[in-house]
Amino acid sequence: MADRPSGAPAIRVLAMPADTNPSGDIFGGWLLSQMDIAGATVAVERSGGRVVTIAVEGMSFLKPVHVGDLVSFYAVIEKTGRTSVRVRIDAWAKRGRTRAEERVTEGVFTYVAIDEDRRARPLPSV
């Protein structure tokens, strides 16, 4: 993704005190889970149904997220396979006090489309 995010975020979330680690920063696991939700929303749209996360690659925590930051998660499909969708996710924080925006986290998540029996199913044609 470029120096600034483009398009609309898949989701936006306000970082709250309950989401902090013992040092007072937002817990990395919270960011990971929000990124997974953002990526899944894009994968569900592309697959036309249910998906499961099968891989997280290249996760990088670039800067800390603080309580009060509004975090926007931008998700873009990088590649599709027969049953899979690979999504790049960039998280940007709008700082609560300064309103400055910074990219804070990035990663690539892979999802697989599944059927009612939780078996992999082909993606529909575009």
Portion of residues in beta strands equals: 35-45%
CATH topology name, in short, is: Thiol Ester Dehydrase, Chain A
CATH architecture: Roll
Shape type? elongated
Strand line-up in the sheet with most strands: 1-3-4-5-2
What does this structure look like?
- The chain has a single domain, classed as Thiol Ester Dehydrase, Chain A (Roll), CATH 3.10.129.10.
- A five-stranded antiparallel sheet has the order 1-3-4-5-2, covered by helices on one side.
- With 126 residues, the chain is an alpha+beta fold.
- The protein has one helix and five strands; from the N terminus they run βαββββ.
- The chain has one helix spanning 28-47; strands at residues 11-14, 51-61, 70-80, 84-94, 101-113.
- The model has no long low-confidence stretch (mean pLDDT 94).
- β3 and β4 (84-94) form a beta hairpin.
